[in-house]
TrEMBL record:
Organism name: Lactobacillus kimbladii
One GO MF term attached to the UniProt entry: DNA-binding transcription factor activity
InterPro entries to which the protein is assigned, alphabetical: RNA_pol_sigma_r2 (IPR013325)
Coiled coil: none
Keywords, alphabetical: DNA-directed RNA polymerase, Transcription
Keyword match Zinc: no
Protein name: DNA-directed RNA polymerase sigma factor, sigma H
Keyword Translocase attached: no
Length: 191
């Protein structure tokens, strides 16, 4: 690294300053470990976490690490790295636990049959109740009533004969709606 005349403080000096409450030393120390922060950020994917969230968490962890670090033991870089990776893993565990909540509430088919549980009435299911990504939400906003019904048939939520009887349409009309649906799906989801 090239010294450009700027007063480059040692890591130990920055840590001492952070322990004394000097905020600018924290910024310098975080800047020094920016490559490490970026590496950890790239290793772990957490839903709904953007660069600002990662940088803020890294700064908080850097501050806590500097406050609790003993300058007579080991290297700060490895201590900070361990704490940052542990934090990232905790975020991933929390995110995965959130995703498993639906599994905790589910019941196997055998248990449902044994306990005489009835399936949900499919007439209550609507498109907005299904978890959707932005692209899916955009797609459903572009669909006509007939195309929406074609989608519900494709997802197995409603039966084809029920839609044909309810809307009083032919199989050919429904087939054309499926074709338009497929075209809109390609345009919306693949572009």
């Amino acid at each position: 690294m090239k010294n450009t005349g700027i007063n480059i403080k040692s890591e130990a000096e920055l840590i001492r300053q952070i322990k004394n409450g000097e905020d600018e030393a924290l910024l310098d120390l975080c800047f020094r470990y920016k490559p490490l922060i970026n590496k950890v950020k790239g290793m772990y994917h957490v839903r709904y976490y953007d660069n600002q969230d990662w940088e803020q968490d890294a700064m908080i962890i850097c501050h806590a690490s500097a406050k609790s670090f003993d300058l007579n033991k080991g290297k700060f870089g490895s201590y900070f790295k361990t704490r940052l990776i542990n934090h990232a893993r905790s975020l991933v565990r929390y995110d995965n636990a959130y995703r498993r909540q639906a599994l905790k509430q589910s019941v196997s088919l055998e248990t449902a049959k044994k306990n005489n549980l009835l399936p949900l009435n499919k007439s209550f299911v609507s498109i907005p109740e299904i978890p959707l990504s932005e692209n899916i939400a955009i797609l459903t906003g572009k669909l006509s009533t007939l195309e929406t019904n074609a989608l519900l048939i494709g997802l197995g939520i409603v039966k084809q004969k029920d839609v044909i009887e309810k809307l009083k349409i032919s199989k050919l009309t429904l087939s054309r709606a499926r074709s338009r649906l497929a075209q809109k799906m390609r345009q919306t989801l693949l572009d």
